[in-house]
Amino acid sequence: MAKTWEELEDIQPIVLKMFKNSMMKNRLAHAYLFEGMKGTGKRDASFLLAKSVFCHSPMQGYIPCETCVNCKRINNGNHPDVHLVEPDGLSIKKAQIQSLQEEFSKTGVESKKKLYMVVHADRMTVNAANSLLKFLEEPHPETIAILMTEQAQQILPTILSRCQTISFQSLSAEKMIEKLKSHNVEPQIAPLIAQLTNNIDEAIEFSQNDWFVQAQKIVLKLYEVLKKTPLEAMVSLQDDWFKHFKEKEQFDLGLDLLLLIFKDLLYIQLGKEEQVVYLIEKERLEQFALQSTSRRISEQMTAVLEAKRKLHANMNPQLLMEQLVLKLQEGSLFV
Prior knowledge:
EC 2.7.7.7; five-stranded parallel β-sheet; 16 helices; alpha/beta
């Protein structure tokens, strides 16, 4: 569900203040790059800005009314002068950008204004990025481009130079936990969820999801099986992990949960128990922490982070997990 001005202002006050100033002074840029972690509201902000631009009767001159036909059509994704481009599979193709250019060469259906959004702009192919660059170099009058990314360093410098970059800040873990508790999320699970997402809606969904509860158990079991033989570890992967974590996003979440176990072990060893997030399993983790060294835990964390990098580079997830488990078992794990 699209966030209102008030809801997003609570999460990204600096961004909304910038929107307000630009709208009031009629100085909106022709191209923006919204960059920040997943869940920080970039997509919500893009639609909110679109509504501010097209709203028939914005309140105070910049807050979309949410009730006019334009606001409703933008919320429903069917406004003729607002276009969304998302990756087709793993990337955004040149043909998608060319199709967008063709749309924008036409006169606006209902006004001269046009706005387009490119989600995961870092995933454009080289040809797509070059096509977009030409588009940005010769902007159509009253056209606004919004590029969104979690990986600004992957965007062509020539594209970056033509966009006004807006950074979306993550909520602090403390504020996220506070918000989750206000939504009746259990205090013992809130710190863990706050480390996994910055999106309140997604976080609440995690807290109510049986799949997520089971995921935590499977990840903890995988950690425990590391002290057994490689064969037993592989059997555990086949019997538990691969049956539960099926999609790429699920694999990624599983790796994040595993990483948090190692972080908690390290915090316990450093005497920073207040930073532990697996609160339900804290006593067991304290026992596990006695069976390893800080150096070994750091090495294992590095191995998990490398596995996440390979997953994002589209390595086969099953092969990746098998290699990771063997890597985590290397050396004397529990001395």
